[in-house]
Specification:
This protein has 494 residues and is mainly beta. It has one helix and 21 strands. The N terminus is likely disordered.
């Protein structure tokens, strides 16, 4: 196995050597002038001195496009600086917040379901309530930024299988910057009574923190850097965490190297599921060929381990990448390349398998409308049902302002998990689980501090060629959700 990391690392280093001497003709965007505007809903204290406000983190060297782009409300947009070959999904940019602040709030949500979680085909309508506190925080320094979104509270259900429990969602990001490098620490944690795939779809319950324009917009982790949970019928409450460190070093105004390390875990409170750990190392190189287009090459190594199971999977990917960004309007990321998977215990007489991996992320915004589409194909941890799987996942969302007060949204997702392990002769073939969800909702704000939401979502799951765990059954559930969110006015920190 050692020959593959050496080969792929050499491939990346060769690309570095070819472009090391690329001409530097772009200026540091931090030197550009910007309008002195801030989020209108933040109460601004009188300045105590004449010192300029801190520089928002995330503006490393490199070309920036559409630096004068603004939101519908007229707020300037900071161009996205997410590395193409990094661990996060590129965004359309973020609002230029000139102050550090925190915003506490609370939310109530209720799911009315057509069946229980354990017997989804049996008609047994039940109700589950979520009562939680929210907190979003943004702290900025001259060359650093800390951002956090957190939601935590209780779950109260008439579903005897689920019962009463609690849930938490948190995302944290700390950034440090120098003239030539950007260091990021990222952590995402979930404690949920069910799979996070489709949880709270088309409702604010799926989002940590207060949401909206005041909730710090943290780029989501690529699905390859999160423990997968795309099978609905894994049993009971679970928690997952992804802790990541990433360094992006700028070789020139148009090129950078990105190195990252990540550790993830997936745990269940009930027996009958497969718990896992994953360790991920990646090395990437980006080269900006124009103001809006970037090419990259990525190598990623993933080690999957399973608690109480001797099987272990080592997976290696080398991908070519392409990115296209128009600040405030469009973001595209595409990845494709070979994948090599090695098994500690041979599967079907094989200890190594070769395949193709790939994916893409697409985000687009037009007047009063936002669209998002994400796809990924490759080896995953197995979602708590398998000791490794070949997984295809596609999710999408759209939201549009319907009139002055109402906003409508659509969401959908599909996942196909094919076990990497062979079954016995009695159940020929490898089990495949297909999972779908689709939903629609409407939001109505009440002033700047409160929002009410109503949504409907359907969940469907089916398995073919048998299944490794008894919890993998056919699944059909209808869900109606009603939620209410409230937050106080932002508390500006000196």
């Amino acid at each position: 196995m050692k020959r593959y990391p050496t080969f792929f690392a050499a491939l990346v280093l060769s690309a570095l050597a070819l472009t090391w001497s690329a001409p530097a003709f772009a200026q540091d965007p931090s030197s550009s002038q910007e309008p002195d505007q801030s989020e209108p809903s933040i109460v601004q204290p009188q300045p105590a001195s004449d010192q300029p406000p801190p520089k928002p983190a995330g503006r490393g060297p490199g070309w920036t496009d559409d630096s004068d782009a603004v939101t519908d409300s007229g707020m300037p947009i900071i161009p996205d600086a997410t590395p193409l070959t990094g661990v996060q999904i590129a965004t359309l940019g973020s609002q230029d917040q000139r102050h550090s602040y925190l915003v506490p709030g609370f939310q109530y949500g209720n799911f009315v379901r057509s069946s229980t979680l354990e017997a989804p085909q049996v008609g047994d309508w039940n109700s589950t309530s979520f009562l939680a506190g929210n907190l979003s925080m943004l702290q900025q320094w001259t060359h650093a930024q800390f951002a956090m979104n957190y939601t935590g509270g209780g779950v109260f259900s008439t579903d005897s299988v689920q019962g009463n429990s609690y849930y938490q969602q948190m995302e944290v990001q700390q950034i440090f910057e120098t003239r030539h490098a950007k260091f990021s620490l990222i952590d995402q944690f979930d404690y949920l009574p069910q799979s996070d795939f489709g949880f709270g779809a088309s409702s604010p319950l799926a989002i940590a923190g207060i949401g909206g324009p005041l909730g710090p917009s943290l780029p989501a982790l690529q699905s390859n850097y999160q423990p997968t949970q795309s099978i609905f019928t894994t049993i009971g409450s679970r928690y997952s965490n992804s802790a990541t460190a990433q360094v992006a070093y700028f070789l020139s105004p148009r090129s950078q190297v990105t190195v990252s390390g990540s550790y993830g875990l997936l745990r269940f409170l009930d027996s009958g599921n497969i718990e896992s750990n994953d360790t991920i190392l990646s090395l990437g190189y980006d080269y900006q060929v124009s103001r809006r287009d970037t090419l990259g090459i990525l190598y990623r190594y993933t080690d999957f381990r399973y608690l109480g199971n001797p099987q272990a999977i080592e997976d290696q990917v080398a991908q070519l990448a392409y990115g296209h960004k128009i600040t405030g309007r469009m973001s595209i990321q595409l990845f494709l390349g070979p994948e090599i998977t090695n098994f500690r215990i041979p599967v079907g007489g094989e200890s190594e398998r070769n395949s193709v991996s790939g994916g893409g992320n697409f985000t687009y915004a037009i007047s009063h409308t936002n669209l998002s589409l994400l796809y990924n194909h490759g080896v995953s941890g197995g979602s708590g049902a398998f000791t490794g799987a070949t997984t295809d996942t596609i999710t999408g969302s759209a939201n549009r302002r319907l009139n002055r007060v109402y906003t409508g949204n659509l969401s959908f997702g599909y996942a196909r998990n094919r076990s990497l392990q062979n079954l016995s002769v009695v159940t020929l073939g490898q089990p495949i689980v297909n999972s779908w969800f689709a939903g629609a909702g409407v939001d109505r704000p009440f002033g700047r501090e409160a929002t009410a939401s109503l949504a409907y979502t359907s969940f469907i799951e089916s398995s073919t060629q048998g299944c490794q765990v008894g919890s993998c059954t056919s699944y059909l559930q209808h869900q109606i959700s009603l939620s209410f969110q409230f937050h106080v006015r932002p508390v500006v920190m000196e």
